C-alpha cells in the first residue's frame, strides 16, 4: 500500500504544481494584457495620454488627453421612480476631438413623465409635461497629462439652452432659459486597475420667462476597478448637488462591459440618500467609438 499512497501524493503534488503554474500564467497573462491595453492608449500614439475609467452617468465631454480625430456616439436610456410619477430619460450625444487634448460635445436630452398607478388624478396634476429638455454644447481642454504621475486634469464649459415643454411649444418662445456650467476634472490611475476621478463645478440657471437665477454646485466623485485583461470595469459614482442649505446625493454603482472592439455597454443603478421625492433609478448607456487614424509613434 506504500506505493499507492506514494502515487497519490505524487499525483496531488503534480496537480497542485500545475494549478499553481496555471494561476501564475493567468496572472502574468492578465498583467500582459493590462500592459498592452495601457500601452495602446498611452504609448502607441501621439501625444501622451493616460488611461482613465470614465463615469457612466455624468460622463466627460471626451477622454482626458483626447487625441485629434477621436469621436464617440452615446445613446442613454433611464428610468427614475419618483414619489408621485415616473421619469423616463433618453439622450443622444456626439463627442469628438478636433485637436489634441480638446473635446467638443453636442447632446440632446429628452424627458417623459408617466403616472405610477397610485392616485392617478392627483399625479396628473403634479407631473411635469414631456419635453425635449435642452440643447447642450460643451467643450473640454486637458491642460495637464502626466504618464509618470498617471494623472490628468481638465477644465471645461457646458452651455445648455433649455427648451419649452412640448405642450407649450407653439404658445411661447422655443427657448425658456439658459444654464451656464463651468467645470474642473482631475483623475488618477493607481497602479494598473484602480481609478479615481473628481468632476466638479458651479451651475447657474437663468429663466427667461421668470427673469430669475438659480445657483447650485455639483461634486461628482468616482472610484472604479478595471477588470484585468479587459476594458470592463466595476465602480461607484457619487453625484452631489448643493443648492442653498441642502445637498442632494445619489449613489450610482455601475458596470461597463465591452461587447465588441468599438462598442461598450454601461449599466448604472441610482440610490438616493434622501428619498422624499426620488426613489430608485436605473440607466443604461451605449457607447460606440468609430475607428479613426491617429498619429502612430515609430
UniProtKB/TrEMBL annotation:
<keyword id="KW-0732">Signal</keyword>
<feature type="signal peptide">
    <location>
        <begin position="1"/>
        <end position="19"/>
    </location>
</feature>
<protein>
    <submittedName>
        <fullName>Phosphoribosylformylglycinamidine synthase</fullName>
    </submittedName>
</protein>
<dbReference type="InterPro" id="IPR048131">
    <property type="entry name" value="HAEPLYID-like"/>
</dbReference>
Amino acid at each position: 500500500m506504500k506505493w499507492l499512497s506514494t502515487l497519490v501524493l505524487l499525483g496531488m503534488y503534480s496537480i497542485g504544481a500545475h494549478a499553481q503554474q496555471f494561476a501564475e500564467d493567468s496572472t502574468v497573462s492578465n498583467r500582459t494584457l493590462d500592459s498592452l491595453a495601457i500601452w495602446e492608449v498611452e504609448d502607441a500614439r501621439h501625444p501622451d495620454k493616460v488611461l482613465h475609467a470614465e463615469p457612466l452617468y455624468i460622463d466627460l465631454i471626451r477622454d482626458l488627453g483626447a487625441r485629434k480625430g477621436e469621436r464617440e456616439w452615446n445613446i442613454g436610456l433611464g428610468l427614475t421612480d419618483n414619489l408621485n410619477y415616473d421619469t423616463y430619460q433618453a439622450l443622444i450625444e456626439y463627442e469628438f476631438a478636433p485637436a489634441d487634448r480638446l473635446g467638443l460635445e453636442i447632446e440632446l436630452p429628452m424627458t417623459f413623465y408617466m403616472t405610477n398607478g397610485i392616485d392617478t388624478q392627483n399625479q396628473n396634476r403634479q407631473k411635469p409635461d414631456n419635453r425635449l429638455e435642452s440643447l447642450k454644447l460643451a467643450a473640454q481642454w486637458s491642460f495637464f497629462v502626466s504618464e509618470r504621475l498617471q494623472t490628468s486634469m481638465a477644465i471645461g464649459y457646458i452651455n445648455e439652452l433649455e427648451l419649452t415643454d412640448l405642450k407649450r411649444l407653439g404658445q411661447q418662445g422655443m427657448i425658456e432659459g439658459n444654464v451656464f456650467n463651468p467645470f474642473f476634472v482631475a483623475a488618477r490611475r493607481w497602479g494598473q486597475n484602480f481609478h479615481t476621478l473628481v468632476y466638479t463645478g458651479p451651475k447657474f440657471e437663468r429663466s427667461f420667462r421668470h427673469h430669475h437665477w438659480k445657483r447650485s454646485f455639483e461634486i461628482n466623485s468616482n472610484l472604479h476597478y478595471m477588470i484585468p485583461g479587459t476594458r470592463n470595469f466595476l465602480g461607484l459614482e457619487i453625484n452631489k448637488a448643493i443648492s442653498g442649505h441642502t445637498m442632494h446625493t445619489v449613489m450610482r454603482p455601475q458596470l461597463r462591459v465591452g461587447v465588441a472592439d468599438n462598442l461598450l455597454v454601461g449599466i448604472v443603478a441610482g440610490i438616493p440618500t434622501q428619498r422624499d421625492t426620488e426613489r430608485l433609478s436605473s440607466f443604461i448607456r451605449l457607447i460606440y467609438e468609430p475607428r479613426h487614424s491617429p498619429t502612430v509613434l515609430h
